[in-house]
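Deliverable D5.2: sample structural annotation.
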Amino acid sequence: MSSSECSVKPVIANRDDWLSLGQETTPKTWVQWVFIAFAVVFAFWHVATNLLINESALWQNAIHFAGFAVLASVIFPARLFGRQSLAFDLTFGLMVAWAACWVIASESRIYADTLSVTGQSWQFSLWDWFAGGLLIVAAIDFSRRVSGWVIPALIIFSVCYILFLGESLPGVFRTASLPLDDVLFRTIFNDEGLFGILATISSSNITLFMIFGGFLVISGASDFVIELSKVVAGRVRGGAAFVAVLSSALTGTISGSAVANTASTGVITIPLMKSSGFRGRFAAGVEAAASTGGQLMPPIMGAGAFVMASYTSIPYSTIVAVSVIPALLYFLSVAFVVRIEAVKHRVGEGIDMTVSRTKIIAGALTFVIPLSVMIYFLMSGVTPSFAASAAIAVLILVSWIAWLIGQWTGTEDLQTNVMNLKRIIDACLLGMRGGILTAVLMVSIGVINNAIVTSGIGNGFSLMIAQWSQGSLVIAILLIGLASLVLGMGLPVTAAYIILAILCAPALAGILSDTIIIEKLIHGLTDPAQAAMFMLVDSPHAAKVMVGMTLEEAASLMSAMPFEVAMTVRPMLVEAEILMGFLLVAHLIIFWLSQDSNVTPPVCLAAFTAAGIAKSPPMATGFQAWKAAKGLYVMPLLFAYTPLINGTFLEMCQIGFFAVFGLYATNAVIARFAEGPLALWHWPLLVTGAVLCYVPLDLLLNGVGAMLVTLVVWLTYRQNQFLTGDTAS
């Protein structure tokens, strides 16, 4: 993740180089050197606590937030009356660090004092109140500094909601109020609070991967990605754009931020695309769409995989494994957009794609080997923190091996990126710099998470979605997509995903599981205990539960079922493994939809970043990125209506294979162009072919659809050759 992922980019003044050993025009002060030393020690502390030191989760999370509070206070300064004050920022950061440590150290005393006063409220001292209040204020202030006012507003509303506001709201959003001391205790010490599960994900997993990403960047990973992309895609028509797609996919394995991905690879790929004849807005849109896909690319997936594994209790390896085919389909969809544009406008040729073989070799050692080690350990079932730490160690070792080989062979590219002490420090600082936003938001969102869990509003929100959708998956997905777009206007996508997952995942998983229950209702329930549960439903179709009913009657019965009854019935009628699979599908749908704010106007940060590089109109670029990233909307529908996620390996491969034809046809219909202009009679063939390709697990229909798409591609290709005399690939 990166701080550039926020909707309001704070002004950092001249403190941006405080976490760097780069060449500055003025020497660093002793305060800056102390700050750098602290950041490096803090980075190694994360490694040590996850591998060597057996620290309690509360203490680990508290120190994690305390350290990042100091870093955030300096790198993202407060602006008092339009001015900055280093003294104020450092003092505030240190006070927040003290508060985090104080409340955790006071936990046992609070329990003891409260137990000694039977029947009374939580017994806080004056210092406890001060420290706890300061932590909530810090969560509001730091989240404001790194991401604007959306998260702070949600924090303030959530606290007010469980204090007094909830009891005055109508319907499903009404909840009982809690006393102030109870709210404070739950906010700090609950598993869903400030130092709960979200903070654990940040301190144990995400920060270490941020550090690993810093090591990859410092070791020259970007150069390798670009050169490798040239080898794979640089010599076909539209090769410059294909390089952008592929390099962004590879960069996505080390970067959890679409905006950071765009900024790092876009400065190379966008000028390359423009020089090969692509329009500026198209080049920027493709880069933004491809960079957004980087957050969908295993193994890191923008930290989404770690959050998903924690919330669903599904193994991380399973989540990563089922995400490979959808990620590949997404990037193929973007590649099809590139291909159609290149052929339509006859651009994308005549660019020097000279490849540096030594950079390929050097990158293969310091990029491929450590990344392979990390993936191997992740798939082996070890903790993600161990996998990231092992990959860092391997990267350092391999860089020195490459240096020795370079010394022996006289190859300069092998010697330039050796991980000496300076580069190791720079890598740690880069990781800490990238981890500030994630750490601050993951801890701060704990306040919101606690309010949602404590009040039960998540169930209310799920009930509302279930009522509005009336059991329709399409409507439910549309509602979640709209919610993600609204939240994404002010939140980084990971934060938007977390909030939506808490609120919407149960409802969506419930609608998915209801499809199985409806099928059983059609045939009739033979178990009297199961059938008896439906007698609680106020529906004329309840009497037909044991004898069977039509599809419409079964759907009507399920839509009339109260939320509480549905929660009881589903585990009785649907196997636990299937329910878990539907939960994973629901989370993946929400995770994919949460990415759309990167490329969907009016607020599309990745597209705006790319537009700045390409010097193209921001809104036009955003619209182009949205068209190129249509896989964000196609894939969730495949998740919902096909076994692309929870099917067998062969079923997943079959769906993925024919989806390739469907995605090409979808892009061709939108562009009104395939390998050549579409004639009027091509349209029904292409649309029919696309629909048939998406039909789940019907080999005959899928085959017919693929043949129809292939036929249109061949016909338009021959026609275009005849019209233009163009024989280029």
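Annotation notes: The first helix runs from residue 30 to 51. Residues 21 and 422 are 8 Å apart (CA to CA).
The annotation will be released with the project's public dataset once the embargo ends.
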